[in-house]
Amino acid sequence: MEHQEHIIERYERAWIFFGLAMIAVFIILIAYMMMTMGNTNPVSTGRIDPTKVRTEGVFANPRVEQIGDEYVAYIQAFSFGYLPNEMRFKVGRKVTFYITAPDVQHGFQVEHTNINVQVIPGEIAKVSYTFSRPGEYRIICNEYCGIGHANMISKLVVEP
Ligand code: CUA
Questions:
Q1: Where does the Cytochrome oxidase subunit II copper A binding domain start and stop, copy by copy (predicted)?
Q2: Which atom of ligand 1 is nearest to the CA of 105?
Q3: What is the Cα 152 distance to its own chain's centre?
Q4: Helix (H, G, I), strand (E, B) or coil at 39
């Protein structure tokens, strides 16, 4: 009898532990998602007339600006490439990308990061990222955009 009670108690304790462990895993997962997605979740920050992207405003002069310790990059994704076609950043500095398209929908994915933006003509997408490792990062388009889609590749360089 006593022996049986012990078994039941152990069984209950195992279940309570399991329940608590699941709750802990859940909390950790949510915290992790918030941490990793938090600053790289692209947001639309405004609209621009897509027919004027190439001629007016900051996107007519795609560039990287350094402001203090941070960078701001204004990027045009077009059929079939990106402007500026080369970007350089110092490792460990925050980079804020503003991206739009003058023609059709494109993608802006930076390999080996969680930057993955859908670029819609006339929508200004914003995404921030801090590169923690130097090297070359490929930029690829992952929205089908026409005959040159597969060749719509660029790169950025993170310097030590
Ligand atoms: Cu641009 Cu696919």
A1: 64-160
A2: 1
A3: 18
A4: coil
Return the ligand 1 atom nearest residue 152 CA.
Answer: 1
Chain position carrying tokens 């500026």: 84
Minimal-distance CA residue to ligand 1 atom 1:
106
Q: 18, 59, 78, 131: which one is catalytic?
A: 78
Q: What is the ipTM of this complex?
A: 0.98
Give residue 81 CA to ligand 1 midpoint distance, Å.
Answer: 8
- Per the DSSP assignment, residues forming a β-bridge with 110 are 139
Helix, strand, coil content of the chain in percent (nearest 5): 30, 40, 30
Per-residue pLDDT reduced to its tens digit, 109-157: 999 999 999 999 999 999 999 999 999 999 999 999 999 999 999 999 9
Helices (H) and strands (E) in the chain, counts: 1, 11
Active site residue 78: yes
Higher-confidence residue of 51 and 17: namely 51
